[in-house]
């Protein structure tokens, strides 16, 4: 019963490098989300998707891109890493807009 | 857009005492209010939620109350135990939205001292 799985768990990036955070869910959920969590700031929505082929911006999308080619996967791409992107990233999913949102374990990213 | 404020940011209680965390929201169209518990190194986990057609909901030692007029909701934990120590987040979701996205409060770090 895997739920929402994120990889990698930890990553250190140099300024200007690119990387992709992977997220997959095995619950056949239509909705998927990426949040970032900064100390004392709660969780901020980066991007979300209501189904395969559909993505939209959240509260803090700048510097990130997403794609949703399948129901299961929702990768988050950082193109030119900046120190301001040092954060903990959480992927989440829900069956529909009115259902419980389930979170992954998080990915700790440091940009130096 | 929606804005959720959460207080206090830290809370320390003695084992067995009660803990109360409060949140206010700005969007009167919000109608779903979950509470998440986040343990160290883990993702947030839903512990209880309430919808706007209900004023109170209980689940064993935890309860949530909602005051729609004042636009605030609270988490109550009774008979606290050391394993209740964690960061707690409140959130709100707009009822008319078809995106399902939650807006979170800033979080409360609860410490239960044995």
N-to-C CA distance of chain A: 36 Å
N- and C-termini, Cα separation of chain B: 41 Å
Largest beta-sheet details of chain B: 6 strands, mixed
- Catalogue the unreliable spans of chain A: none
Approximately how much helix is present in the residues of chain A?
A: under 10%
Give the biggest sheet of chain A. Answer: 7 strands, mixed
The fraction of residues in strands of chain B falls at: over 45%
How does this model look, in words?
The complex is a heterodimer of chains A (about 110) and B (about 110). In chain A, the strands form two sheets. In chain A, strands 2, 4, 5, 6, 9, 10 and 11 form a seven-stranded mixed sheet that branches. A four-stranded antiparallel sheet of chain A has the order 1-3-8-7, with no helix packed on it. Helix content of chain A is about 0%, strand content about 50%. The model of chain A has no long low-confidence stretch (mean pLDDT about 95). Chain A has about 110 residues and is an all-beta fold. Chain B has about 110 residues and is mainly beta. Chain B is about 0% helix and about 55% strand. Chain B has strands at about 5, 10-15, 20-25, 30-40, 45-50, 55-60, 60-65, 70-75, 85-95, 105, 110-114. In chain B, strands 2, 4, 5, 9, 10 and 11 form a six-stranded mixed sheet that branches. In chain B, strands 1-3-8-7-6 form a five-stranded antiparallel sheet, with no helix packed on it. Chain B starts with a strand and ends with a strand. The mean pLDDT of chain B is about 90. The interface of A and B includes residues 4, 40, 94 and 96 of A.
């Amino acid at each position: 019963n895997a739920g929402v799985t994120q990889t990698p768990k930890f990553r250190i990036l140099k300024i200007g490098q690119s990387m992709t955070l992977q997220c997959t869910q095995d619950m056949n959920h239509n909705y998927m989300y990426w949040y970032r969590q900064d100390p004392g700031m709660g969780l901020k929505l980066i991007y979300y998707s209501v189904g395969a082929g559909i993505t939209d911006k959240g509260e803090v999308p700048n510097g990130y891109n997403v794609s949703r080619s399948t129901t299961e996967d929702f990768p988050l791409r950082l193109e030119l890493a900046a120190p301001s992107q040092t954060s903990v990233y959480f992927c989440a999913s829900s069956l529909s807009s009115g259902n419980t949102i389930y979170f992954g374990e998080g990915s700790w990213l440091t940009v130096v | 857009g929606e804005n959720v404020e959460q207080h206090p940011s830290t809370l320390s209680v003695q084992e067995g005492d009660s803990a109360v965390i409060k949140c206010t929201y700005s969007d009167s169209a919000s109608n779903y209010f979950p509470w998440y518990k986040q343990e160290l190194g883990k993702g947030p986990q839903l512990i209880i939620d309430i919808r706007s057609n209900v004023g109170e909901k209980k689940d064993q030692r935890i309860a949530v109350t909602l005051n729609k007029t004042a636009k605030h909701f609270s988490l109550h934990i009774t008979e606290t135990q050391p394993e209740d120590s964690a960061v707690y987040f409140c959130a709100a979701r707009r009822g008319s939205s078809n995106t399902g996205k939650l807006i979170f409060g800033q979080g409360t770090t609860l410490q239960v001292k044995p």
